[in-house]
Write a structure and sequence with these properties.
single chain; Rossmann fold; 5 strands; globular
């Protein structure tokens, strides 16, 4: 089994990365392979609402010049996915948001590619806005019909300078517990394959409230 984690911070080894390392350490201890992909330092254009991914259904976004389609395939191949971001104005960092908007729309219109994979969100913050950013990341996981492990508090860790998050004793425990729970849930899903049949995916119903 494998987990791919996306680091939405502009800093390669800032507090967001440290949080991911805490979670992935527990996953690796449980025998699960992990990979951290650095998204936050890339130039990622936002979704242009062109609708071509809906028309083509080829698991690709038509916008050129970045690694979004490569990352989509990494998510498809993985058994678990971690979305992580620092907090920018009480929200997901811009580059990470652009990636998520495009990637999750593509996966959604291609037969729900991420359905029943295990997904978790992780946030690093200096002071405030951690919970709102955590909720925003969870929206993508919920939309994709993924399975979400929990910890013993919201998955938010605090620190300003790179590495300060390691001094947040409660935050460190939260990440450690998340890693253990994620590994356990992934193994439950794996052991259930072929034994417990998942529900058939329903076609999405769209409703316009303007009459």
């Amino acid at each position: 089994m494998k987990v791919v984690a996306f680091n939405g911070s502009p800093n390669k080894e800032g507090n967001t990365w440290h949080a991911l390392k805490m979670v992935t350490a527990e996953l690796e201890q449980a025998g699960i392979e992990t990979e951290i992909v650095h998204v936050g330092n890339k130039v990622i254009r936002g979704c242009t609402a062109c609708g071509q991914c809906v028309k083509n259904k080829n698991e690709k976004c038509v916008l050129p010049g970045d690694e979004v389609n490569e990352w989509i395939q990494k998510m498809k191949a993985a058994d678990g996915i971690i979305l992580s971001s620092p907090v920018h104005y009480a929200a997901i960092a811009g580059t990470m948001k652009s990636f998520l908007d495009r990637a999750f729309y593509v996966t959604g219109v291609n037969d729900g590619m991420l359905r029943y994979k295990v997904g978790a969100a992780v946030v690093a913050v200096r002071r405030s806005g951690g919970v709102t950013t955590f909720e925003q990341l969870n929206n993508f996981i919920n939309y994709a019909e993924m399975l979400m492990p929990t910890s013993n508090y919201w998955n938010v860790i605090h620190g300003r300078s790179p590495g300060e998050a390691t001094q947040d004793a409660e935050g460190v425990q939260i990440m450690r517990v998340l890693g253990k729970n994620m590994a356990w849930l992934m193994k439950l899903v794996e052991y259930g394959k072929g034994t417990i049949i998942p529900p058939e995916r329903e076609p999405k119903t769209y409703m316009n409230f303007i009459h």
